[in-house]
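--- STAGE predict ---
source: upstream dedup step, 1 unique chain passed
mode: sequence only
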Amino acid sequence: MKSDGLFGICDMRFSRVLAVCLAVAAMMFVGFAPAQAQAQSKPNPNQPRVYLLRGLANIFSLGMDDLAAKLRARGIEASVHSYVDLETLTRYAVEQASMGKRRPSPVIIIGHSLGADAAVTMGNRVTAAGVPVPLVVTFDPVTAMTASSKIGKVVNYYQAGGSGKAVSGPRVENIDLTGSGALSHFNIDKAAELHNKVIGMIQRPARQTRPRAVAATPTPKPVSAPADAAAVPAATPAATPADAAPAATPASVPASPAPAAATQSRAVAPISGTETASAPSAVPTAPAGTGTSN
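--- STAGE serialize ---
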């Protein structure tokens, strides 16, 4: 009887300890799960927000919706709007990029047709407000636009033979797709190959290049010639005038025979020829195309 009572007390104590341990573990899990979920859902401040603008009547640029869905599937925040919302959307983009941040997050703008015109205008205004715009992509804009130099890069896919127009600006890349098969103004925004290129440009990490300090090259000091070296050439001609050799030769010495003079001239001729042949090889001449290849 006593043993049964002892075992019963032990079982009760073990059950209480086990219950307390389970309760503590549950509380720890409940407290850790929201923190982990919050850490995973916390947006990256360096992640760009992408705005896509449709064209006329908001129904002919459904390729923007397809591209936005592809971006969202890759974890990139993207939304589609009408080009008529340019004013409101510009203010909204600036506010969202700057809200609660020490530095505004980057904004990327993509548009088709009239939406492409609005994309360039929006990029100019957003950068003027101090928000970085690393990329603007336009599909067949219908107006000749000029992009601000503050925009990191503008890529314009257009067809010069149709209604598309080139974009002006110092950082603009115009890609003319006039001879690219079945593409037209009404389906250029839906081309899967162009979508892949745009996604690659957005996902490519931005390189923040800083100008590297170049070490100053010390300027060599001119070497002054010795004073006696400059005096030697002046003294040498004075010591040996042109008429010195004939004056020192005695009159009784017979003149050198003609064959000896002929032998000396043959010995000098090869030396003179050797010096002439080696002169061009001492100074190599650059090819004609080298100067213009750079």
